[in-house]
Design a protein that fits this description.
Blueprint: H1 4-7, H2 11-21, H3 26-33, H4 37-45, H5 52-61, H6 66-75, H7 97-108, E1 114-117, E2 123-126, H8 128-133, H9 148-153, H10 165-183, H11 186-196, H12 211-214, E3 216-221, E4 224-234, H13 241-245, E5 247-253, H14 256-265
Antiparallel strand pairs: 1-2, 1-5, 3-4, 4-5
InterPro entries: Cro/C1-type_HTH (IPR001387), Lambda_DNA-bd_dom_sf (IPR010982), MLTR_LBD (IPR041413)
Protein name: Helix-turn-helix transcriptional regulator
Domain HTH cro/C1-type: 15-69
Length: 270
């Protein structure tokens, strides 16, 4: 198997793309990886054929996602080393360890809404708090496969209920744009362009460095307003491609009134 047999591009070209994306010089990458800048240059230009170990060593220093590390190995003529669980319903049934871990994590946040998404923000699993937030929504946006970012910003989705839509939209678009740039994923770039074209305005303050921590989600609700702070959790030690790409977003009540409303609407099961 040649370097180009699977990907159509040499492994050196792909590694150079990741180095440029991470804004590292050949010297900086060489120092990080404990090799010479000359060797990095030779790998990138094709004058040296890297071993599988060298590909993984460079990929680790470049913080390349596991899925892309497998592609680098294939481009270099080696077999992938990271497994990939199937996220379809049949594979994530009762007893599946990935599904069990997700269900436990989501249930632990109850009654705060929490959901698990894949690398393209497709809904994988959710707890009952999410159902409470989305109550009354119908149509294609809530029919599988559900993209949670599209659902949140679309005029037929959650957007009309978001009090601070411009601010929240700015936060979501900034986060998604950064993710698309860091991963080089064309599907994320396409999703960003799609959501950018939706109405709703954009608050520039959501682009500030602290925005990931402090931008609230304020929702209109019967009898008042619910305010949430969003957190995103990933499986940092995962060695499976699919599990590494999963993220759990939790909407924590930001005030006592929201916490009380959640407890009233979603009392503990008997």
């Amino acid at each position: 198997m040649t370097e180009t047999a699977v990907t159509g591009r040499r492994v050196g070209d792909l590694l150079r793309d990741w180095r440029v994306r991470r804004r590292l010089s050949q010297m900086a990458l060489a120092l990080e990886a404990g090799v010479s800048a000359r060797h990095v240059s030779f790998v990138e230009t094709g004058r040296a054929r890297p071993s599988a170990e060298m590909i993984l060593q460079l990929a680790e220093r470049l913080d390349v996602p596991l899925r892309e590390r497998n592609r680098l190995l294939l481009a270099g003529g080696f077999a992938p080393v990271y497994g990939q669980a199937d996220l379809d319903e049949a594979q994530l049934g009762e007893g599946n360890p990935v599904r069990t871990a997700l269900d436990r994590l989501l249930a632990a946040h109850d009654p705060a809404p929490a959901l698990a998404v894949d690398r393209h923000w497709g809904l994988v699993a959710a707890n009952r708090g999410v159902g409470f937030l989305l109550a009354g929504l119908t149509g294609e946006l809530v029919a599988p496969p559900v993209n949670v970012l599209r659902l949140s910003l679309h005029p037929d989705g959650l957007a009309p209920r978001i009090v601070n839509l411009a601010q929240w939209r700015g936060h979501v678009l900034h986060r998604l744009g950064r993710q698309a740039q860091q991963t080089g994923d064309p599907a994320l770039a396409a999703l960003h362009a799609e959501l950018l074209a939706l109405p709703g305005g954009e608050d520039a303050s959501a682009h500030e460095e602290h925005a990931d921590l402090f931008v609230p989600l304020r929702l209109r609700a019967d009898g008042g307003e619910l305010t949430f702070l969003s957190t995103v959790t990933t499986f940092g030690t995962a060695t499976d491609v699919t599990l590494a790409e999963l993220a759990v977003e939790t909407f924590l009540p930001a005030d006592a009134a929201t916490a009380a409303a959640l407890r009233a609407a979603l009392p503990p099961a008997p």
